[in-house]
Write a structure and sequence with these properties.
The complex is a heterodimer of chains A (about 500) and B (about 200). Chain A has about 500 residues and is mostly helical. Chain A is built from 21 helices and 2 strands. The chains are: A mainly alpha (about 500), B alpha+beta (about 200).
């Protein structure tokens, strides 16, 4: 029997959703301030309207839903998925008011893409977008990368078991410090520390490459946000090709690779445990799968003879593949070049890299190196068992901060989520193909959306079918929250209607 | 005997020079200042969709300069968008799809003609270039680009008027008041609960 949620359940969910929405409204203060400083008055008004809408919704919910009850696991999952949905609907207001979106659905697509650090976009005439809106686009991906729940936990929550459940509901489970609020603050300290250094380095490079000081600074901050959050948004339609600089490419690679690492790994390194960097299962798994996919793409491209020499070939292959594997989505080639120049094999290698993704508990999406590593370790253990005497006790361990025994529950958990991702990739690709796109292109774009990567081969466009826009938006949401929260929200809605 | 050898060497040199002239790539012709005959005026879409067809050829390209001119020593990068927006009047901000364009590498003295680049506040200069298209430029890390040898500003850029809407200002004021009221109410209840606890 399905139990219908009670009034008290609605109240606790409403209260905590309200807190997260207030956090979104507070975030809008940053683009609002920039618009005012740069005299973009019309844009500033858009942010006043949007942030006021968030505060009305957020404080309104908290006033309506007064309860002292703490969040249970089910509530936390519903709040995590529900707040992402409402934050997306309200966060789309500045996009829609800017006049750069073809419809509100397009604006929602872009904001979901931002929060989920995907990087696909439907915004039109990007090269004439205001600085305020560009700040919002990049801030979305920066905040979304850490998690909008983490934003709210940092400023608006007191530590409680419910707060930890909410944190887990957003697809994270690493507790760096005993208290989850302290953990959320630690994530922000690490991220802001990197922002200060990385943003300034990119700004200095932009200036040296011929940008004006203000544009170099803003582009430095935005490109850092896009790279660190593995978001892939860039302020110009040319993406990172804009800079035409090997040095700039190398720095962005360093930032997005760092961003794709587990927060717990960053914390371990910050705490002095540098050995963890080369011992960790996720970094090892990432190094192996990145090398293999780059090798395949390089061989494919060298056979096609597109690039004039080996150095340029490797530079292009490595950048797109590293960007795809870390689910960043930065690109130094035109979207259509994947189809027109790269061909099926290199596209397939890129698709596989995007599908795997990077580390768990990071800003990245995809299946994750941890699961690939655990499944591989389980496979190796099975082979060892097959070739060993029956009496032999085979124990396979992996290292992630400590040695972990690869047992059945761990394997089952890794396989369940992996199968869920593969199913999602398949379904989204089928919908793309059903909409009339070539299957390989539909698979490339579908995997890109569902793994929160953002590389495009040209399928994503303002004129694409509405059904595909909706499916990609849902895929980004499901992929980012790793299914459980969204399924819990769907279950909650079903129980409201059908429960007793 | 000696004279015959010299003549043979001269004949070989002449033949080699003729052959070299036939296969000499266009960029070198451009560098020597010889006249370039454009082989067409492809759009950025044509260049991206059929790069091999235009690779190494001299083309005409026209578009709105966007962002900024990035000077790098004697040369500079500029980005020319030949999308629907580049053909619009400054006050026409209706949507017309994604931006589309090409990166252009031009001598600094030519690039200096570009005064206004397109951004939120400006429609950029409409720039016409003649240059060699590279599907994967060996000099620039395999980027797709045009090396311009001729550049002129066809139409100067202009500011884009961005009027503040009175309706939006009123909506912003009204919503802010409601939000402030709710915040005050929330804060009062929050404090009362804190005192009770």
């Amino acid at each position: 029997m399905i139990i219908q949620p009670r009034r008290d359940d609605h109240l606790v969910i409403g209260k905590y959703t309200g807190k997260v929405i207030v956090g979104v409204g507070l975030l809008m203060a940053v683009p609002l301030a920039l618009s005012l400083v740069l005299g973009e008055w019309s844009v500033a008004l858009d942010f006043v309207i949007s942030s006021a809408a968030c505060f009305i919704c957020g404080f309104g919910l908290q006033l309506l839903c007064r309860t002292e009850r703490d969040l249970g696991w089910g509530h936390a999952l519903v709040v995590a998925a529900g707040s992402w949905l409402i934050a997306t609907l309200l966060g789309a207001l500045p996009h829609s008011l800017s006049g750069h979106e073809g419809s509100y659905l397009d604006a929602v697509f872009d904001v979901m893409s931002g929060y989920t650090t995907t990087g696909l976009y439907l915004i039109q005439d990007l090269d004439h977008v205001s600085n305020g809106l560009n700040m919002w686009r990049h801030l979305l991906t920066y905040a979304g990368g850490q998690g909008i729940i983490v934003v709210a936990l940092t400023f608006l929550f007191r530590g409680s078991p419910g707060a930890y459940r909410l944190y887990v509901g957003e697809g994270k489970d690493e507790r760096l410090l005993p208290n989850v609020v302290q953990t959320a603050r630690a994530i922000w300290i690490v991220s802001l520390g990197y922002l200060a250094v990385g943003g300034l380095v990119l700004a200095a490079m932009g200036w040296a490459l011929g940008q004006t000081p203000l544009r170099a600074f803003l582009h430095g901050v935005w490109v850092f946000m896009g790279a660190w959050s593995t978001g892939g948004f860039a302020p110009q339609s040319y993406n990172t090709m804009w800079f035409h600089s090997l040095a700039y490419e190398l720095v962005t690679v360093a930032i997005f690779v760092a961003g794709s690492f587990n927060f717990a790994l960053h914390w371990a390194v910050w705490s002095g445990n540098r050995k963890e960097l080369r011992r960790n299962l996720e970094t090892v798994s990432f190094a192996v799968t990145l090398s293999l996919t780059v090798l395949v793409a390089t061989v494919a491209l060298s056979r096609l003879g597109i690039y004039p020499d080996a150095v340029n070939l490797f530079r292009k292959a490595f950048y797109q593949l590293a960007s795809g594997h870390t689910t960043t989505g930065f690109s130094t080639i035109y979207s259509r070049a994947f189809v027109v120049q790269w061909g099926p094999l290199a596209m397939l290698a890129t698709t596989v890299a995007m599908a795997i993704g990077a580390s768990a508990c990071s800003t990245a999406g995809g299946i994750k190196g941890m699961r690939v590593g655990v499944i591989t370790a389980g496979f190796v253990a099975d082979i060892r068992r097959m070739i060993s005497p029956e009496s032999a006790l085979i124990r396979q361990r992996v290292h992630h901060l400590r040695d972990i025994l690869v047992d059945s529950p761990l394997l089952r958990s890794a396989l369940t989520v992996t199968v869920a991702y593969l199913t999602l990739y398949g379904l989204v690709a089928i919908v793309g193909a059903a909409c009339g796109y070539d299957f390989l292109q539909a698979a490339f774009e579908g995997v890109s959306a569902a793994s929160n990567t953002g590389l495009s081969c040209g399928v994503t466009a303002p004129a694409m079918p509405v059904v595909l826009k909706v499916v990609y938006t849902l895929a980004m949401w499901l992929g980012r929250l790793e299914f459980m929260s969204v399924l819990a929200l769907a279950g909650y809605a079903y129980a409201m209607v059908r429960g007793r | 005997m000696m004279r015959r050898r010299v003549l043979r060497v001269l004949r070989c040199a002449l033949l080699a020079a003729t052959l070299a002239g036939l296969v000499w790539p266009a960029p070198v012709l451009a560098a020597t200042g010889a006249t370039l005959a454009s082989l067409g005026s492809p759009s950025s879409g044509d260049l991206v969709e059929h790069p091999a067809q235009w690779d190494g050829k001299v083309i005409d390209f026209q578009g709105e300069a966007v962002g900024e001119v990035m000077r790098r020593g004697d040369s500079a990068w500029l980005h020319l968008n030949d999308d629907a927006y580049s053909r619009k009047a400054a006050d026409d901000i209706a949507l017309a799809g994604y931006n589309a364009g090409q990166a252009v590498w031009a001598p600094s003295e030519l690039a200096a003609q570009v005064k206004i680049c397109g951004d939120y506040s400006h429609r950029g200069d409409l720039v016409h270039v003649v240059g060699i298209f590279h599907a994967a430029c060996p000099e620039h890390g395999g980027d797709m680009d045009i090396h311009a040898v001729k550049l002129e500003v066809v139409l100067p850029g202009s500011p884009i008027a961005r009027a503040v809407s009175g309706v939006r200002a009123a909506a912003a004021a009204a919503l802010s008041l409601v939000a402030a009221g709710l915040w005050l109410l929330w804060r009062r209840r929050h404090r009362a609960r804190g005192r009770a606890a």
